[in-house]
Amino acid sequence: MRRRPISLLVFSVTLLLLLWLVPDVLLLIFAGVLLAVFLRGGGDLIGLRFGMSGPKRVLLFTLLVVVVFAGLGWMAAAPLAEQMSQLWQQVPRVVQQVTQRLSSYSWGQELLERAKPENLSMPSGGGSGAFAVLGTTFGALGNFVLLIFLGLYFAMDPGLYRRGIEFLLAPSLRLKASASCEEAGETLRGWLGGQMISMAVVGVLTTLGLWLLGVPLAPLLGLIAALMAFIPNIGPVLAAVPAVLLGLESGLSGALSVIGVYLAVQTVESYLITPYVQKRSVDLPPALTIVVQVAMGTLYGIMGLALATPFAALLLMLTRRLYVEDYLGAEPPEERRVLLR
Questions:
Q1: Which of 220, 226, 266, 217 has its CA nearest to residue 246?
Q2: What pTM was computed for the model?
Q3: Per-domain residue ranges for the chain?
Q4: Rounded distance, CA 244 to CA 139, Å?
Q5: Which tens digits make up the pLDDT trace of 168-219?
Q6: CA distance 240 to 303
Q7: What gap in Å lies between CA 247 and CA 218, rounded to an integer?
Q8: Strand, coil or helix: 123
């Protein structure tokens, strides 16, 4: 058997085994690649502006990001801490009011009974197991530190890791592997840029809508909505929960108004902002995105769900280039003539 198909087979089987046996590690690596794409993109902009090259521009951009976030955190620490304290004080009181209202109805009593912790059960399986390993083995802080170092290492010298992938394949495939890695980076960079724009739009529109309704803590709730927008489908729902609870202070109409704001923001983001932005960066079919989100969320938990959309963009690009164009597009003439008969 020729070395070319053997190398492809060994590479594919190894990747599938790792995805099956240690999916948490591969998810962390993929998250590190996304961070590296962000850092490398910013570093390239600095390199073009100031003529810097090599890892220095990545380190400078990383330092600028740290300084900017530290400055924003220092300026917003006091008001955000105050708002967070108010949120923790108001939410339990609002939950108690809602509980009292639901208790006056028979269906509400049944709903509250089912919502008790002892009556709730977490599903078991690969998704919860993978997320448990990722969350308990290293801890949240350990995962964050590992992610930062992975992103920095990948961003400062991506060629080193790209060459490592190339050496696992036959020499005749290495040029194509290098081009595919470059295109994969461009695909992830385009998706990440579009996602950041969408998150910013969600945060600004949510803050503005809640402020117009007079909902307290609108900036904090807008920030939560922007951050949770990174997790598709379930993120916006989770972000709306504290806002709806605060809206209940004004009665059912207040809660419905808050829900209307979140629905309007998600409609604008889903049907106007994201399609326009992603169309200019990544041509990702919505149905494929949903299928990959469901599969990744079921198999690998919330972290798989968070990384499902960039994974879908990468999967689509690799399928189009390596299978549709290189394999199916290279069909021999004699096979094509058979189909025409």
A1: 217
A2: 0.74
A3: 3-113+137-327
A4: 31
A5: 888 888 888 888 888 898 889 888 888 888 899 999 999 999 999 888 778 8
A6: 20
A7: 11
A8: coil
